[in-house]
Design brief:
The structure is a homodimer of 263-residue chains. With 263 residues, the first copy, chain A, is of the alpha+beta class. Chain A contains six helices and eleven strands. In chain A, strand 3 and strand 4 form a beta hairpin. The radius of gyration of chain A is 18 Å and the shape is globular. At the A-B interface, helix 2 and strand 2 of A face helix 2 and strand 2 of B.
Chain lengths: 263, 263
Amino acid sequence: MTNYENMAPNEIRDLIRKQDITGPTAGMSKGFTQANLVILKKEYAFDFLLFCQRNPKPCPLLDVTEPGSFHPSKIAGDADIRKDIPKYRIYKDGVFTEETTDITEYWEDDMVGFLLGCSFTFETPLIEGGIPIRHIEENCNVPMYKTNISCEKAGVFEGPTVVSMRPMTHEDAIRAIQITTRFPSVHGAPIHIGDPSQIGIADISKPDFGDAVTIKEGEIPVFWACGVTPQAVALQSKPSLMITHAPGHMFISDVRDEKLSVL
Amino acid sequence: MTNYENMAPNEIRDLIRKQDITGPTAGMSKGFTQANLVILKKEYAFDFLLFCQRNPKPCPLLDVTEPGSFHPSKIAGDADIRKDIPKYRIYKDGVFTEETTDITEYWEDDMVGFLLGCSFTFETPLIEGGIPIRHIEENCNVPMYKTNISCEKAGVFEGPTVVSMRPMTHEDAIRAIQITTRFPSVHGAPIHIGDPSQIGIADISKPDFGDAVTIKEGEIPVFWACGVTPQAVALQSKPSLMITHAPGHMFISDVRDEKLSVL
């Protein structure tokens, strides 16, 4: 098996572009930041950019392409967001229509690509800090929940904050708050800790997205704002065309995780 | 003399709206964040928002109004950015034409207001940390310099990063880096320390904006990205109409300085 973990981001992107890689990107180019993708037409771009600016915790923008440009100049100038993601999803009028490995045929001259930070970036330092991540231990997707915390509206975009949850001991929770505080540009510190009902989660064993994980005796749930929020909110407004990455099939940038920490 | 220092932000804004206050806002509503203002028409708003997103250190956005709305809903929902700043500057086609205390007559339905973080917010914790601020000691404006550090271009907006400079002892410089790191949303940590020539400053005694200050024996200059950058860059593109606050005449928000720290 090829050792994707130690390959450079541009090498991985090259394999993705050739469609030699079409699966999930977790663990590839270790140490480099992976990003969520949302592509919208220019008519929605100002409102969506404003939405992200007003809601930086769930919508941490790493890069926004110039309208019509498919190069994310800030985080990987030689990349092509039409081809360098293993799997895309196409949504028309808010309805999922297709999964594809190349969106060149869908690209239009007024499209804007939004690259958003992802929790992979802060999970690495958590693990290196000795904090076990339950959904990784249980080899499933992180549990995600809609909350009663409204995002700040911007133009046509509005909706609830989605959170991801990681259960841990109380001591680890304190350390996790410290560690993720260092990364304000990839969700930052948790937005809630301890009582799911306070943020509108009725049943912690029934996530709205992802998979349920075990919460052990003596552990508390820790909630971070989640990058699913902007996609969910964008879909609600039913744009004529919206393209995203498929879950787990992320964009691998040239930016080292550590570059995103403020200290 | 009225004690403006301990008045609430909405009380000060009310006096400004009545034009009972028309002077600089330094020291008013102590502990609450003051902001720079740039108003542009919608046609420039996406590019300018993108410029700020790409250059967060010189252009730390605290709020952006909905097109046509004069209420900065995130930082002071009941405020009116047409009236609640003591003095405005009007620029037509990139040329300064007028100073005024109320811009209601200039307001158009497609205007967008950008409120940007200001170094007042991090100077307070520096002073409280025992670090003397030279331009405050010398009762003048902070020295600012154009550098050879290009901002990331966005649409029509491009130009050099402008920095502000505060000289201090080497020990204080270390502490100042720690303190301002806590405030990534108001310029954050310095972008250079020590050698002005490395960032394209030929003569430290001749600032491009503001006033020169004394640099004492054994002190080093510490440079922060400066909120003058976005205004300077916007002007270079000669928008048909642009409105800003007059220097030192800031918008006083309802947000406490400490709210902007990440730890």
